[in-house]
Design goal:
The chain is mostly helical. It contains nine helices and no strands.
């Protein structure tokens, strides 16, 4: 089924088209949710909630940009809202005071290492992990992140700096990336190389 046929079917609330859309995009979107979630169960909850929004809002897609990108934005916002609703930001870090990762191939030498990095990102406190995911992986600006999380832009910047340092420490301790390679890795991992 083509993307156009799936979209058309979803606009008509066709269950077959909705199943096809879910089958096509849920694996990638689960990896997005997994990076924000505390565990797989939370990620699956975020995914389900996100797809409910996708199906109820599909009529708002205006063919400006990729359909997958539109779905991804809904998933990211769903994850943020899920964390806010469940007050997960404050479990280990007060965000007011202070994350399948898609990393460019040249920044990480192997798929195994990319999976290890995802697991290390998940070790970060929720506030740090969320800002790191939004800035370095999803490509949002600190201004956009501040608006999403209802914090100051400077808070987003400091959270990102602290998250990056904590992640570097974890990567070094786990011998995933040697200290001399850290700076080069961050140039490849971050959206704007802050």
């Amino acid at each position: 089924m083509t993307e156009e046929a799936i979209l058309s079917g979803c606009l008509q609330n066709d269950a077959g088209a909705q199943r096809e859309l879910y089958a096509r995009y849920s694996p990638k979107m689960l990896s997005v949710c997994y990076r924000f979630a505390h565990n797989r169960e939370d990620a699956e909850d975020m995914l389900q909630e996100g797809f409910i929004k996708v199906f109820s809002q599909v009529h708002t897609f205006q063919n400006k940009g990729a359909f997958e990108g539109w779905i991804r934005r809904i998933m990211v916002h769903t994850c943020i809202n899920h964390l806010k609703k469940n007050k997960k930001f404050n479990e280990s870090v007060d965000i007011i005071h202070a994350n399948g990762i898609q990393v460019r191939e040249e920044s990480v030498p192997s798929i195994v290492q990319a999976k290890q990095i995802v697991e290390c990102i998940r070790l970060l406190p929720v506030g740090y992990r969320t800002v790191l995911n939004l800035y370095a992986i999803e490509g949002y600006s600190h201004k956009e992140i501040a608006g999403m999380l209802d914090v100051e832009e400077s808070t987003s910047r400091s959270q990102y700096t602290r998250a990056k340092q904590m992640l570097e420490d974890i990567l070094i301790k786990k011998n995933i990336i040697l200290p001399s390679r850290i700076k080069a890795e961050w140039i490849g991992l971050t959206a704007s190389g802050q």
